[in-house]
Amino acid sequence: MSPQQSDTEPKHALVTEIECCDRWQVYFRLQELDIPCQCQAHKPLSAEVRTADVALQIWSVVNRVSRPQKELATWLNHCWTLRCNA
Description:
With 86 residues, the protein is of the alpha+beta class. It has a single domain (11-81), classed as Alpha-Beta Plaits. 48% of the residues lie in helices and 14% in strands. The protein has three helices and three strands. The chain has a three-stranded antiparallel beta sheet, covered by helices on one side. Helix 1 (20-32) packs antiparallel against helix 2 (52-66). The longest helix has 15 residues, at 52-66. The protein is flat. The N and C termini lie far apart (40 Å).
């Protein structure tokens, strides 16, 4: 970390290994969620990860576009069967 950076400054994360058309879909969804990000032709998508919540939102968006629909449905059904001990 440089002397001018602090722990409170936003960190950038590269989201890679996303198909080209999916990358733009992720970019536009992150924009809708007000997550600062950049996506240029032939370059990886980058997004600011300021909090754990933002990291989870990015993971969720990437997961949504990169996984097969059947796998997502199975995962969702599994979530509905879990017991909550609140």
